[in-house]
Specification:
Layout (H helix, E strand, L loop, with lengths): L1 H35 L4 E10 L2 E20 L4 E21 L2 H4 L4 E5 L3 E8 L4 E22 L1
Antiparallel strand pairs: 1-2, 2-6, 3-4, 3-5, 3-6
């Protein structure tokens, strides 16, 4: 009885090791293939956010949207400074009051398909919460966008 229990335990242990390894390989292969087909991010990079800016570097390409909010009052000036390096794809930058309708009719909008640096001053004519949105479309490169209220 002791001998058959020992043999049975050895067979079960070997079966578990073999199947656990097979399951791990199948999961690894599935995750690898899922990352290659239809993923919105390919490549590596880093992203940094703060209350007054956003910054990222993407090698490969990325399709994404980064949005930050800022509270502004009528008469404020929002000063945006941007440094955008485009290797491929595009990045659009938009400032709009926080609402679905305003997103399609922004206070300020610019699309970047080439590298650019600059500063823009946006006069605010209505108090409220505004969104600063960077939309990446198959974007590769880097961006550094900061803003402040004057």
């Amino acid at each position: 009885m002791y001998l058959s229990s020992s043999v049975s335990g050895s067979v079960r242990s070997r079966w578990f090791r073999t199947n656990a390894t097979s399951i791990a390989l199948v999961l690894l292969l599935t995750l690898t293939l899922a990352g290659c087909s239809g993923s919105t991010t390919t490549g590596f990079g880093w992203t940094f956010w703060s209350s007054g800016g956003m910054k990222a570097s993407v090698s490969g390409w990325k399709t994404d949207r980064e949005t930050r909010t800022v509270r502004l009052n009528e008469g404020d000036t929002l000063v945006i400074t941007y440094d955008i390096e485009v290797d491929h794809g595009s990045l659009s930058l938009r400032v709009a009051p926080r609402s679905i309708r305003a997103f399609n009719d922004p206070t300020w909008y610019r699309n970047f398909e080439e590298s650019r640096s600059g500063t823009v001053e946006i006069e605010i004519d209505q108090s409220g919460t505004y969104e600063v949105t960077a939309t990446l479309r198959r974007f590769g490169g880097s961006y550094d966008i900061t803003w402040k209220k004057d």
